[in-house]
Amino acid sequence: MSLTFTATLADRGFDVAFDLAPGETLAVLGPNGAGKSTLLGLLAGLLAPTAGRAELDGTVLFDVGPDRRTLTEPRHRGVSLLAQEALLFPHLTALENVAFGPRSRGVDRGTARATALSWLDRVGAADLAGRRPGHLSGGQAQRVAVARALAADPSLLLLDEPLSALDVTVAPALRTLLRDVLVDRSAIIVTHDPLDAFLLADRVLILDGGTVVESGATASVLTRPVTAFGAHLAGLNLVPGVRTADGFASADGWTVPLTDTAPEDMSLAHSAPENSSLAHSAPEGASLALAVRPGLVTVSRSDTTTQGTACRAAEVDDVEHRGDLVRLHAGGLAADVAPSDVVALGIVPGSRLFLAFRHEDASIYPL
Amino acid sequence: MTASSPNAARLPRWVVALAVVGSLFVILPVVAMALRVDWPQFIPLITSESATAALLLSLRTSLTATALCVLVGVPMALVLARTSFRGQRLLRSLVLLPLVLPPVVGGIALLYTFGRRGLLGGSLSALGVEIAFTTTAVVLSQAFVALPFLVLSLEGALRTVGTRYEAVGATLGAGRWTVLRRITLPLVLPALVSGAVLSFARALGEFGATLTFAGSLQGTTRTLPLEVYLQRETDPDAAVALSFILVLVAVAVVGVAHRVRPLGDLAPRAASREAARP
């Protein structure tokens, strides 16, 4: 393991443990106040835990218990932090900013400069070397900040929503850059954006209320979420239910048969077939989850139950405009429909209509 | 600023009228004094022996007092802004006391600290050090009244800048001294400069504490304000000419203190909004 981490912080209700393999990138997701920033603060040494221990490549970051209290100073941790804002030192040029890390570690001026230049070049900002942060755009500043964080040669790179303050036109280029530099690097990225998790992270940790509620490989967490928040992030409907003699049944009336061949599981990308057979082989009464994309849920005024389709009547709770689509919330499901359909069906909150999805569009797995 | 500017237009007229009265109250006396200056005799008046001695003494002591303020004021501001301890609020109030204390009272307090029969005076006498009624006493009086200006201005700047840059510096491997030297102090340098300039101005104008604690000996403790006060009795023209020098210094100080602003690029978000190119 590159990093082992166990920490509790009593006054924030924070209690998290996880490991990180060498070269692995972990995405930490969660609603506001879930403890994501606390996690980074503890690792960077900006916060002290009430109890816990973390070790990075053999260096103890902290080891706090009833009879011991080791807190390594931030500068000796080998942990660099890239925040939402670039936070470049405003009185130094881009080059001096990047050279700051090497200089602080006692590297001589010339070598530090050379290192800084090569990192600026690596992030595509070599031409900005002489500029002060005040004369950089947000995207340029964040590139320089990436170079500065990496020039310090950290054992672990922490990224705190590094793209969220950037203009949407700039974020993709920087995401590509991060993807590039994070290969084979131990990193933890806090993000709100499941796209970041998909593109940048090998594993995902979902926090809520200061504890880990879901964790696992990015693909499996984001295609087979087991919590409402995980499903929300993944943009999926999550319907909890149980294994019945015929297949899946939810408390609110959704039933989907499970067949031996389990074709219902193949439609979602990254899905691992063994999970559906796990659902299939689950004993009667076992908890199952059903995940289906809002875009694959259809609405109509009449019951459309047919072979291979699940259909149920529901009352519309909410109608939400999302760009060129309208998202309906009804009967615990979200359904994306075209605005013209909303008009044609006369849908308003309180309307009764039928929601349906094909069995093969749903992914069913044990909770 | 014209009456037709949109902001002025939104104010009630009586507010503007009172503002004009207030401004005249500040400006008129200075103008009145300038009119009273005996311009043909100006240079001889300010270059007389006693005037030159007072001017040089004032400059020397004020600069020394300013240096003293920087030396102890910067650490004080850092401790007040970057640490928290029991009694910190009380300490902050006490440090600012000279700001509101009548200078004469400050002088008496200093006398009972460093004077021959003061709290520390006895021990200092035993070491052969006499402070009261020497040039050192002038410097101490000036530093006493000027220190709050530096501490106040610097502590405010330190709080405004915040600790985020310092935290970044620490995660990049910088030790405490490196963070202080390469990040914290450069970031608050404008406030340090304007605080030092204000301290210098306050030191230059010091009268009450100096008179009480240091006396008025020509060339030793008689600074420019004391000289002005003294000349007023015997040679009003000289007093006015010397006063005018202090006015010029004050104008220069106000100019410098206003010109020095916090680094314009302390707000990276503003920069990112105006130029969103990759």
TrEMBL record, chain A:
Coiled-coil ranges per UniProt: none
GO terms for MF: ATP binding; ATP hydrolysis activity
Family annotation (SUPFAM superfamilies): MOP-like, P-loop containing nucleoside triphosphate hydrolases
Record's keyword annotation contains Nucleotide-binding: yes
Xref: Gene3D superfamilies: P-loop containing nucleotide triphosphate hydrolases
UniProt keyword list: ATP-binding, Nucleotide-binding, Transport
InterPro entries on file: AAA+_ATPase, ABC_SmlMolc_Importer, ABC_transporter-like_ATP-bd, ABC_transporter-like_CS, Mo/tungstate-bd_C_term_dom, P-loop_NTPase
Residue span(s) of domain ABC transporter: 1-234
Leader peptide range in chain numbering: none
PANTHER family, per database record: SPERMIDINE/PUTRESCINE IMPORT ATP-BINDING PROTEIN POTA, SPERMIDINE_PUTRESCINE IMPORT ATP-BINDING PROTEIN POTA
Protein known as: Molybdenum ABC transporter ATP-binding protein
Naturally occurring in which organism (per UniProt): Arthrobacter pityocampae
